[in-house]
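Margin note: ligand = adenosine monophosphate.
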Amino acid sequence: MGDLRVVSGWRGHIPKGNRFDPSDLLKDESLPKSWVKALSEESDRDLFSDSGGRWVRRGEFLELSERAALEMHSSGLEPGDRIVLSSTASIDMVAKYVGALRLGLVVVPMNTAYTRSEVFHIVRDVKPSAAIVDSAKMAEWIAAGIRQPGFVEPFQGPGACLPMPKGDLQVFFTGAEPKVSPGLTVPLDEALGDTPALIAYTSGTTGRPKGAILTHGNLLACAKSLNIAWRWTNLDRLVLSLPLFHMHGLGVGINGTLCAGSSAVLLERFDPEAVIDAVKSHSASMFFGVPTMYQRLLDSKSLREFQTLRLMVSGSAPLSREVHREVADRCGTAILERYGTTESLIDISNPYEGGRKPGSVGFPLPGVEVAISTDNSEIFIGGPTVFKGYLNDPKATAAAFPYGKEWFATGDVGTVDDDGYVAIAGRLKDLIISGGYNVYPKEVEEALRSHPNVKDAAVVGAPSKLWGEEVVAFVIKFQDVSEEDLVLHASQFLASYKRPKRIFFVEEFPRNALGKVISAELRTMVPSWDQ
Ligand code: AMP
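Resulting structure:
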């Protein structure tokens, strides 16, 4: 193993004249304590609106969350019990999420599009006592997963604080009024910094999803650090169309809004025109998205409405330089790209003030430690946002912390330029070794995308008798272009060993719910030379 070289940079995120002490991030102790503090003032200010078109106010929302917590308590749930959360975004869904955390439950966000077998994988791992859902089918699948033979005792490791589920699955449908007996009270908001808050499943682009145990301290530190770095105040209004089963939507969008005491417009799904309309009609100040969303927004003639936003953030996957440049040209504001993982939340960000470099994710966020290994340039994260381990998986947990519990191995490769900005070269697992040389798919993809007839490119390694692995590209084109032209174009930017040996033209790439290209699936689409 190589040495770890620490990357510095917090200062670049702190407003001039302000002092920053990392312990400030955890001063409020838990998410609910921070939220109740932020929302108890000026209780009639708007907080969330959803597809119903109505705004809920701060005070009203706190009451809704309290009623949700009371109903969960009356159903026999106790602090430490796990509750699956699988629903499209709505005010009531968020109130039930907040209610569950206020009662001390451990929330398990789950993709609403999962198939029965994916639901079974998570349910058999996490053993929930309850679920917040918006569909009877999902409730049935979760209950059936629990009844499955092979339901084993939980591992006594990082998740050992989590008890076995009791009795039948308790189901809470979003949109259903909580049933609460008059006069019932229960202690709320008692979680501490090291109390588990979420078990967040990784998106599984590199294998079966694993459950990352995130504490209140992890999530609070992340939200507070972003509040500082992005100048996120109670005057902000966010348009949020990201799914709330992923940390980008839930950990950043919802938790950040509640910590800042700002407001958010919740959209059930991403639709470019609906997003633009929401920005305009609600006078929003911020939009957070993934690169594919920005790509689709560029197709809209109304994108100029984004000129009124003070902040556009992109993350979860690499943002191409072309999209970065085109959005800046059309909106007058550069997208701020940031980097993070489910396990360590948001870690590196371009600065709010100062240059937002295309192709770079910026420098470490306030309080977050970042280091790069001297042997293979892998990025390691330390500090208060790093998770406690994977549920029921001591082997994967040990592999994630090869240098001890201080440093989480992200599996991503990074470089640092002379100004201290970090660029993500790609995932270690996606690295192509061709003829003994290392090729990062992202570099080849950028070269292909710079051709005017190319809309998008995705690059993987395929087995080769001659090279060990060879570079193979999948390309979505705007207009006709030949394989030869593309290789010729790429050769202006790439040494010969990096140029694609084969190019396939496709209509779409396989992507996960966050728009991330699933490289493992792409590799299966490469025909072998024998075919
Ligand atoms: P997830 O756990 O689903 O949030 O995925 C985390 C992974 O997304 C990271 O390990 C990176 O590979 C990738 N990722 C996140 N943000 C970026 C970014 N700005 N640029 C490139 N890759 C990113």
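Residues 4-425 form a domain with the Rossmann fold fold (CATH 3.40.50.12780).
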